[in-house]
Every structure is written in structure tokens, then in C-alpha cells.
Amino acid sequence: MKYCCFVVLLFVPLRVPMAVSQEFRVENTVNSGGKTTKGVTVFKEGVIYDFILPNGEITLFDRNKQEFYILDPALRLQTSVKPDDLKQQVDELQFMLERVDSPFLNFVASPAFDETGYEPESGLMVFRSLWLDYEFTTRVFDDQTIAKEYFDYLLWFSRLNFRLSPSAVSALVRAGLNPYFEKNNRFPEKVTVKLYPKGKKVLSSTTIQADSSHLISKRLTDAETSLLKQAEQYRQSFTAVPLDDYQKEMKKKIK
Questions:
Q1: What is the C-alpha to C-alpha distance for residues 44 and 51, in angstroms, rounded to an integer?
Q2: How far apart are CA 191 and CA 210, in angstroms?
Q3: Which of 178, 190, 207, 231 has its CA 20 to 30 A from that of 117?
Q4: What does DSSP assign to residue 17?
């Protein structure tokens, strides 16, 4: 079966569904380029908090206020973006990628996988193409409310990651795979993604690989409760700047 992610070219105002009062967390570990990054995503009272540990960037999605907030503890800066604006910006980037003279970027804009597979017994899900391979180890969600919350999170945070860093092309492709997980009610516990920017058929092709693991739990620890309080304090005290200015300051910090 061939899977194609469609591109929405028309901008239609939208509302992100209001969150229900479900509380849970997802612990995340990502290995890429010899570097390991740990984080935790907390869902509480209509707000999604995404922390890079320790003391890294914090992203909040307040679904009741319909606003993303991105905070940097080192710079003591914050910025915000509306979901409607985010979707419009991502749609525009996709539109541009479809038209550039690059088969790889054309694929990113509208992914078409040559091979897909799903084994219900093992939970293995695979998506393979000339440019990118995804392999997921999954399990069934035992709580449909949590499943809905998590699928919304995957979609919106994938869009946000791509908007903040368009070079992170796998984030855009990942957003397009969301319907597969929803349809089969699966939670991705382990993920392996391999990028082939020059295509698999090129003998000297570079392969970029990243692996991640995710552990879901319905109980928050005292440490996570403290992180939530700290994030809200940051949101009240950090200097607010436009998104473009925030990104410029982040680039300076990295240099």
C-alpha cells in the first residue's frame, strides 16, 4: 500500500479542541549524532508542558487560551504563537518545498512511502521510501482520552518543531503519519528514523539516523510538579519578544 500525505494549500481558521482534565506524562529520550537528549512532556489541566532536561527550553501549549509559549531559562526570554498562525506558516513552507528543484524536499512536502507495514501482534509499524525510513515499536492505548490528547500533541508539536527549524524535515513528515497511529490506536514507544538526503540509490549517500524512546505514565512525580510551577513562574516573569527576535537570540546563544 502506498501512503501519501496531502498538503493543505488553503488556509482555513481553526480551533484546537479544548482539553479535557486528564493528567499524565511522557518521558522522552532521543539519540542523534552521538548526543543523547532527555525530556518530559506533561499534560495537565488543558496545558501541555514540554521540557528539555535539565534546564533547557520549555514549550507550553495552552489549549484553553489557544496559544503556544516558548521559554528559554538561560536567556530569560519567551515568545508565543497562535495555532492558526502556526498552521498557516507551515502550510506556506510546505507550498514552497513542493516547488523547489529538489526531489528530497519535494518528498518532504508531500511524502509518498513505497512500503508501509503494520504487525498488530508485535506492534511494529514501518514506512520506507527512497528518502526516509521510519520504524516504530508501538503498543495499544488503554485510555482513549489520553490517546486523543497525545495525538493532538504529536500533530501540533511536529508542526511547531518544523516552523522553528525547517531543516528538521522529519518533523514535517512525522506529522503526516499521525492518522496511522490514530486509526490503529497505537502509542509509539520506540522510534528509529533514517534520512537519505541524496537518496538510497546513491552509493555515497549520507545516512542520518535518530532513535528515540517514550514512556507514558498517568502519575506525575514531585519533580514534575515542581517543573510545572517553575514554568508558570517563568511565563509570568520572562521578557516577551516576537518569534523572529527570539530565534535570533537563540542562534546567538548557540554560536
A1: 14
A2: 8
A3: 207
A4: P
